[in-house]
From TrEMBL:
Organism placement in taxonomy: Bacteria, Pseudomonadati, Pseudomonadota, Gammaproteobacteria, SAR86 cluster
Top-level taxonomic group: Bacteria
Major subcellular location class: membrane
GO cellular component, one term: cell outer membrane
Domain TonB-dependent receptor-like beta-barrel: 225-669
Signal peptide as annotated in the record: 1-24
InterPro entries documented for this protein: Beta-barrel_TonB, Beta-barrel_TonB_sf, Plug_dom, Plug_dom_sf
Subcellular location(s) of the protein: Cell outer membrane
Family per record: Belongs to the TonB-dependent receptor family.
Protein name per UniProt: Uncharacterized protein
Keywords: Cell outer membrane, Membrane, Signal, TonB box
Membrane spanning residue stretches: none
Amino acid sequence: MKVKKQYSLTLIVLITVFSSFAGAQNSSEDDSTITYPASFFSQYGPVSVNDMLNVIPGIGLALESNEVQSFNGANRGLGGSEQILINGKRMAGKANEASSQLDRIPADQVQYIEIIRGTSGDLDVRNSGQLVNIVLLESRSNSNLSTEFGMTHFHDGTVEPVGTFSISGQSGQFDYLLSADIKTGYEALDSFELSVLPDLSLNDTRVFERVREKTTYTLNSNISYQPSPSDRIAFNGLYSESDPPSSLLRTITDFQSSPVSSSIEREDIPATADSWELGGDYEHSFSNGGKYKILFIVNEKNNTATRQRYVADAIGSPEIKNLFLHTSSRERERIVRTSYAWNLADNQNLELGIERAQTIQNSSLRLGSNVPGVLSADHGGLTPIAVPNAFSTVEEIRYEGFAVHNWQINQRMSLESSLLYEDSQIKQSGDINKKRNFDFLKPKIDFRFNLSNSFQLRMSAEKDVSQLSFRDFSAAINDRDEEQDTFAGNPELEQEQVWRYNVNLDYRLPNDGGVLNSRIFYYNVGDSIDRIDVSTSPTNLATTNGNVGDGTVFGLNLNASIRLGFVNLPQAVITAGLLVQDSYIDDPLIAMERRVVPFDRGNFSVGFRHDVPSKGLNYGFNYRDGFDGNRPFYDINNVIFIGSRSNLNLFAEKVGFGGFTYRLEADNVLDHDSCRERRRFSGYLRDGKLTEIERFCTNNGVRVTFKVRATF
């Protein structure tokens, strides 16, 4: 407890020092919205909106949200928050949302870009931090063709294509953007695992070669029509397909046998994946200032994978199949959201609305093994192994009513308060039949005080309720431990509930000199999700994801983005970030205190970008790393310690021959090894009987990408 008090004191001292520095700056302006006209960017020769954003100091802070991390990352429904607006509007999409369009919108269509640091009833979304609003020109008739083609070279010599083709334009009140993308997800991993016994004698070594072939093809469309000044209609569509098969070759050397022996394990994992989404919205503005909005989204995701493992004494020797593991899932969403907003007074606005979301997920798992029994063609010619809760359909019907009140207290202070009521029913059928009902109240208060146009204090308190991952309801692949192929589902799982408190100080240096930002946060986490004990006996230990109790998270996030004008390099920007955080929860599974999943100890980053407009050139680097020992994952009989995951990225870009933009990127330049250590125990981990230590490192090599871009 003494360490925790010292850590908290350190956070308070750091935030006080940082705040004092920011408060020493002077600005007499009161408007908290920062505007960059198109003329500001012309000297840089941008091709797309992304190119324009990249030259704005602190843009990463503006796009960074303060969302609470959740164990499973599920994101059903829509909600009212967004970080990027186009013409002041959110896009009617989830996978097909505004941030995915930034490379496709030509720079010459932009009138100006706003960084909105305040809250207002005039905004199309609730501002959880800062918003980026991209305002396009109101040209009556024009069209643009944008292209980007390139190749990525991987460390094993493989070369994969990347590219985007898009056409956008306006004709009267009709706007459109159509695009096609090809992206590579190819991955070639070289891994090595060393296993030692408690006396540090050598147990075995494992050498892995893993290759994943993945290319994603995406078709995208965004169409809007404004039949009158008070009406707007928009539609968005997306289709994406990727077949990500992978293969693995594992060489195992057993040093405990006499003589030392070796064996080969080979795995083939064919897989398919596709998704589509369709969204639309309608907005009507009334003469009294009121605004009515209705939005819908329907989407679907399909994934299948089949893992088959073969063993042999050596490469080329006869193989024996000993594992068949087939998984498939289909997830569908149908969302409708509608609201009405109006001015209660000159400085107050109220929005009332409701959202309905239906989510359905079908999942199945078939496991076959090389054991005595009746062989099955549906299980790869092996003996079927019964897996509880392997076939499941989960359906959620969720209603969320919301009221959002914006109050501009005076020219420098604003208060946004909201109250959301969620009512949902989750029904599971298949191997298990169960129905449960949930309801939650989720209040939020967001207060902002602009000491000037440059310096802003932001404080918020909010209750957040996580979305449950339907994958946790039924049996699934265990991706943490290759010695345990599957883990059981948990139809009793309940949502995490988090009270989060944030204090944010944001300072923009004079003359667009940069941004300084600090955020201190404190979270109370209820019903945290991690592994729970579902063992049938002390000799048959098993876990699944479940609610483990209540925890606490706290930390400090410091960020800076500064132009180097003080050393006569006004077109150079250096960025730096530091996140330090800690958390604790008493875990009954291991009978000890540990960190709250998925919060680690933190990370740091540094970046540099130098634009040379006279030569049409920019170059720089970005480096990011975490703290060693960041993220331990405890299970019933083992624990994994994951090391830092550093990455150095270099880039250079030049506007050259024919007006084309040429870009060269190198990723993972330091060829970093990602390492982890697993400690296995006999029986329960809490009993402390260590049996094995595994040290595992993997490397995906240096990746080099060359791209050529242009707008016509």
